[in-house]
Amino acid sequence: MLKLTAGDRALLAVIYALLAILGFVAFYPFWNAAVISFNEGIDTVKGGVTFWPREFTLANYRIVFEDARLVNAFLISILRTVVGTFCGMLATAIFAYGMTRRELIGRKYYMVFCIVTMYFSGGLIPSFLLIRELGMFNSFWVMVVPGLISVWDMIIFRTFFLGLPLGLEESAKVDGSSNWGVLFRIVLPLSGPVIATLSLFTAVYHWNDWFTPSIYISNADLLPIQTKLQQILNSNIMSEQMSQLNSAAQGRLNKMRTVTTKSLSMATMMVATLPILCVYPFVQKYFVKGVLVGSLKE
What we know:
There is one protein chain. The chain is mainly α. The protein has helices spanning 6-37, 41-45, 59-66, 68-99, 107-119, 124-133, 151-162, 166-174, 179-190, 192-208, 211-216, 225-233, 238-243, 247-251, 261-277, 280-283. The chain is built from 16 helices and no strands.
């Protein structure tokens, strides 16, 4: 066992202290938002609410969950994240596998065309006109189809697929498997870690994206929770939020006069943030997991 000197211990102490400070700086804003969401809005205005609620209340969350608009937006976000991630990973993986085919004529040129789109785009106005002509304006699919394939994810998939042993594909072809069979029976099952990692990144993008719906969707029933949250954060008129509550919430309005725009926005922020954070622990193990252990025997 390696014995640490006094200098090594001092260096480790400094490193741990710096990491603790950085961790606190990164975690505290989230913690403070949670504290404010559980504190009475009027009391929060006085200031001094830092590490623990001074006047604990659930009124902020009660309003969020009794507002049918916010609940519907939350469900839209879940549906968009699930459908967008699944369709995006499937389409990107198929595209990437096609780009690995050596018999594909002009494969290098296709790759150049794809890379160009990473640095240059037509702009917002041409994209808006294209979406409108395709009939996807004010539609749920406008949040899924335009971003169906990510060139960056495709490159990662392609690089990963090219690193797989050729013996796996050759063995499957000898057994009569087609390219589709090789993809879905051999390649994708071996790509668990990369699929999990890219799926997480794609899910986070879909969950956090508020800009796309704000541009292409005017129907309030199709707006996701992040766009609703952005509207709340940009609004300083609490009466507008309270006047649009459903009848059940209106009956309790007198009991919730301590709610402010800030406390409501913090509660909505927590509701919009926690679900995607809960996904990380289940995907983290795939980040460092091996992919080809025992997949090809001599």
